[in-house]
Amino acid sequence: MTPVSAREVKELLRRHGVIAKKGYGQNFLVDGRVLEIIVRAVAPDAHTVVLEVGPGLGALTSALAERAKRVVAIEKDASLRPVLDEVLSRHGNVEIVYEDCLKVDLRALMAPRMAQGERLVFAANLPYYVTTPILFQVLESELPVSRAVVMVQREVADRMVAEPGGKDYGVLSVGVQYRGRVRRVANVPPSAFLPQPGVESAVVEIDCEMRPAVRAADEAVLFRVVRAAFGTRRKTLENALAAGLGEPKEAVRHKVTAAGIDPGTRAERLSLADFVRLADEFAQ
Ligand code: SAM
Description:
Layout: H1 6-16, E1 28-29, H2 32-42, E2 48-53, H3 59-67, E3 70-74, H4 81-87, E4 94-97, H5 106-110, E5 119-125, H6 131-139, E6 145-153, H7 154-161, H8 171-177, E7 181-188, E8 193-194, E9 201-207, H9 219-231, H10 237-245, H11 249-258, H12 272-283
Parallel strand pairs: 2-3, 2-5, 3-4, 5-6
Antiparallel strand pairs: 1-8, 6-9, 7-9
């Protein structure tokens, strides 16, 4: 049985004597339509390997395993093992790794689990207390992820899809948009989960195959520059960069101007291409 309704999830928890752990961000999906929306965005087929973080009670894992070649899922809460064993018993193509995903070397985990010609998709209903660290761990892992489909808090989704000029545009927007085309797939109400979270959620897709053409000479420099630029929002770009990077204002102004950017503008006005040009000046 795949637990996709509140009644089924309650029954499963009761039978196994499991209580949802708030500290692990355990809000289980109990809406089959939302599950289907995630599965459709992942678009698993016989060549797809899915890396999932936080399988929980296995509802999404099971739905993905129906259509994917293989699902490798990392779950921090080992006390869910009996539940996952039961829910996933009919799938021979699922492997659960009971670890804190932030402590796992994802490349070392996935390399022996993937073959030539397979497509890797990251899918997760993320625990909200560690959304950004997990997302960046995956996006920076050098895994050949072709797409990431994640459930996040709605305000995190707003920041992920934000465009220059808006109040939500910041480090997270540039960070994810640098790695792929970002799209909000759906907004999701608290009623889709058990227990219900105190916030709205959204499913976001990052299509890494539709990555923008711009590339920074040194990505570490790019993200240092982006973090410094947004570090003090009310400052002009040159003041924010000088403060954040600890460089003299004159030198900063020279580099900003050389990148074809007005030193008096603000970080939220810069496009991804502007940030890349700017970072390339600082990388020299
Ligand atoms: N995928 C399930 C669903 O959609 O119903 C559960 C999602 S629940 C929001 C988040 C899951 O992530 C929980 O099962 C929780 O135990 C797990 N989790 C929390 N922190 C984790 C970490 N650092 N590494 C791996 N799993 C984690």
